Amino acid sequence: MSSLFGARVQRVEDDRLIRGQGAYLDDLGEDALAVALVRSPHAHARITGIDVSAALDTDGLVAIYTYEDLPDKLAEPLPLLIPHPDLTHGRTPCPLAAGEVNYVGEPVVMVVATDRYLAEDAADLIDVSYAELPAVIGIEAARKAEHLVHADVPGNRAANSVQEHGDVATALGSAPHVLELELRIERSASTPLEGRGVLARWDPQAGQLRMWSSTQTSTGVRAAVAAKLDLALTDVDVITPDVGGGFGVKIVHPWPEEVLVPWAARLLGRPVKYTEDRREHFIASAHERAQLHHVTVGFEDSGRIRGLHVRFWHDNGAYVPYGLIVPIVTSTQLLGPYKPDAYRVEFDSLYTNTVLVTPYRGAGRPHGCFVMERTIDAIAAKLGLDRTLVRARNFIQPEEMPYDQGLIFQDGRPLIYDSGDYPALLARLKKLIGWDEFPARKQAAAAEGRRLGIGLGCYVEGTGVGPYEGGHVLVETSGKVKVATGLTTQGQGHQTILAQLVADELGVPLADVEVVTGDTRRFGYAVGTFASRAAVMSGSAVTLAARKARAKALRVAANALEVAADDLVIENGIVHVKGDPEAGIALGTVAVLSNPLRYAFDTAAAAATQFASGGDPEQPPVAEDDEPGIEGRAFFSPVRSTFASGMHAAIVETDQDTAEITILRYCVVHDCGRLINPQIVEGQIHGGVAQGVAGALYERMAYDEDGQLVNASFMDFLMPYVSEVPRRIEIDHQETPSPLNPLGIKGAGEAGVIPGAAVLAAAIEDAEGIPITSMPISPSDLFELRQEAASKVPGSRMPGSRMPGS
Ligand code: MCN
């Protein structure tokens, strides 16, 4: 049997989904009551009264709840998921606002009715009165702190954090050249096609709760709900149905609705469901990315960096349920493949009266990559050197691996790169995009009056973050194999790749393996899907579990065939002596033999009879250290994250008149260790690049000064269509195995998005000759930059001011 590891296996999950046979949250619970939420229309206000009287006569109304109705535990602020010593002023929201609202969209009242329309009708009739308070919108306002988001948080500062390796002051002081840059990334968001949603059923006889949530962590939701509703873990099941994308936003657990809905279901004794609508997703889920960075870099004539000092400010929105993960990732992953002699990073995480900020695909890395790559481009420009040369002169070399960056990473462990070959990646990228040939192409285009530019961006990404993930593998007496892992799936293809791994280990056809994810009934211990960790964590765990099942199968078969287990192999679902496929036992029959009760009603049972033996009458039927069945259960817990890497390059054309930006080519070289399924990895890269391009050129959450999100719909928020994403994304893989897991793999799920802003800023800058320091950039932004640049050159004609056709 040829190995399925590394094979371009078609995704097994797609057929069902494409035929419309998927079951997403809103497809479930037709019998459920519906929830609508009255949300704050103000960015910052005190609640002075809630009058529900006008709503009470609404048809179908079942219940109305305000903060005052919540039992003690539910009335407390929701948990701070990831505390950090530097997070001195962590604030999390209550499920319903407790007297004050801190962003437009914050839930204030929950309405339950027989359907969503009626619930919305009743919600419209509820009169909440507010005394408005000054709103703090944007990083500058938060830093000035003329007004405070939380009265007890001075300076609006949730955290201040500093890391340093080497002596940056000395390094900068001794550097022949010093540059300073100010670099900004604006707000964006995950915007999965399916919003958040939760359904809960309470079984009063059993005293048990069953929930379905469109989440990235069913075990996290279960733990939070059990704690908040005072239930034993064993009395709560959380099932993740098909999920229409998450991209980070569905990891926060629990969302207010995730505790309110099961609480109401228990109280009312009826199933209750909440499905977020698109406007709610815009204003009341979570955003990411907004950061302002000040960089001071000192370097030599060669371009080698002596000292790098990055001071930045992170807009964390109104609350920090997710702790400091985003700015910590920026501060530590910013260095990418480079090794400055000394590095100091300091950030403030600041409260603003806007929706909270939690990780969105890339989680702080696109910002870090933008800062580092813009800095390297600025060094190259200052010294008149080729941009790839400056990069190469700063690379960590393959022989220096494992490389300790001297920082503490997001998992609290030392930031040590496990493996990678950055010079080789760069060589591949230059070849793929034709870097050395580009100047001639640019010149030829210029002769035709066209502006072309090329840019590149490099990153290193910590993936496969711990602490653990588990897997369970069970061989049925039919020979089919059931696999369960606790983490959830949102479209990454886990059913396929985990089946590939188990089929390889157990020697069964892929079609005989069925994988279940995100169902606490099937696997109760799990962390979740984020940080590009499923392949490394669950991939390794199910592999180890399958190896255990295999060892057991071989032992049972060896006993039945009266041969040594070492002489046996499993191929096509048959356990047989090496080189003798005719004389073997079907794996299903082995499963029958593994159970002294021989409890099976299929052909495997009949086949098993020929091996029947009474066993040793002096021994118990199941030995003390054994169990019936062919099963394996294992956990994988790596010592630290593994570091994937990659480099992207793009060629763009900017229109002289309209300032329209067109991507002519987009190339990716990528190293996520050994590839389980190159086709799936390429799909992940395509999706990531689409989101990277979106963040660079189109998507921007636009708050006005009162904290109203003015583009809270797909009419105004420019999510790119297929027409805006590069038609062809050219990909080349490099495989540098990780030594930190049994499969040698690294993660791939976020990589595509990371360098998008850096690459496109560089390419536009190259085309225009104007520094690009803030992303995203739209044609009108570019037009304004052209005018600004022209106004600084006395007597020059403003580029871009030429009328079309002139
Ligand atoms: N893979 C592989 N070989 C490797 C590495 C990965 O074949 N060496 C495969 C994996 O087996 C998996 C896929 O590539 O099928 C992504 O793997 P991994 O990097 O482990 O990432 P996760 O599965 O943990 O997914 C999380 C990641 C993140 S953090 C976000 S955000 C994101 C993303 O995945 N959200 C997504 N990709 C998404 N894709 C879809 N369709 N929807 C989302 O919400």
Key attributes of the depicted protein:
binds pterin cytosine dinucleotide, 29 strands, six-stranded mixed β-sheet, 806 residues, seven-stranded mixed β-sheet, alpha+beta, disordered C terminus
Shape: globular
Major pleated sheet: 7 strands, mixed
Structural class determined from secondary elements:
alpha+beta
Distance from N terminus to C terminus (CA atoms, Å) equals 68 Å
Tally of extended strands? 29
Low-confidence segments: 797-806
Strand content: 15-25%
Structural commentary:
This protein is an alpha+beta fold and 806 residues long. It is globular, with a radius of gyration of 29 Å. The strands form 7 sheets. It has a 7-stranded mixed beta sheet. Strands 7-15-14-13-8-29 form a 6-stranded mixed beta sheet, with helices on both faces. Helix 9 (325-333) runs parallel beside helix 10, helix 10 packs parallel to helix 19 and helix 18 packs across helix 19 (756-768). Helix 9 (325-333) links the parallel strand 14 and strand 15 (342-350). The protein binds pterin cytosine dinucleotide (MCN). Residues 192, 245-248, 361, 463, 490-494, 497, 529-536, 672-677, 680-681, 684, 687, 745-750 line the site of pterin cytosine dinucleotide. Pterin cytosine dinucleotide binds next to helix 14, helix 15 and helix 18.
Topology:
Blueprint: H1 14-18, E1 33-39, E2 45-51, E3 61-65, H2 72-75, E4 100-101, E5 107-113, H3 116-124, E6 127-132, H4 139-144, E7 157-165, H5 168-174, E8 177-185, E9 197-203, E10 208-213, H6 218-228, E11 236-239, H7 256-268, E12 272-275, H8 278-284, E13 291-299, E14 305-315, H9 325-333, E15 342-350, H10 365-383, H11 387-394, E16 403-408, E17 414-417, H12 422-433, H13 438-447, E18 451-463, E19 469-475, E20 481-485, H14 494-506, E21 513-517, H15 534-561, E22 568-571, E23 574-577, E24 584-586, H16 587-593, H17 603-609, E25 630-636, E26 642-654, E27 661-671, H18 678-697, E28 729-733, H19 756-768, E29 774-775, H20 779-791
Parallel strand pairs: 1-12, 8-29, 10-11, 14-15, 20-21, 27-28
Antiparallel strand pairs: 1-5, 2-4, 2-6, 3-5, 7-15, 8-13, 9-10, 9-12, 13-14, 16-17, 18-26, 19-20, 19-25, 22-23, 23-24, 26-27
Helix pairs in contact: 9-10, 10-11, 10-19, 14-15, 15-16, 16-17, 18-19
This protein binds pterin cytosine dinucleotide.
Pterin cytosine dinucleotide is lined by residues 192, 245-248, 361, 463, 490-494, 497, 529-536, 672-677, 680-681, 684, 687, 745-750.
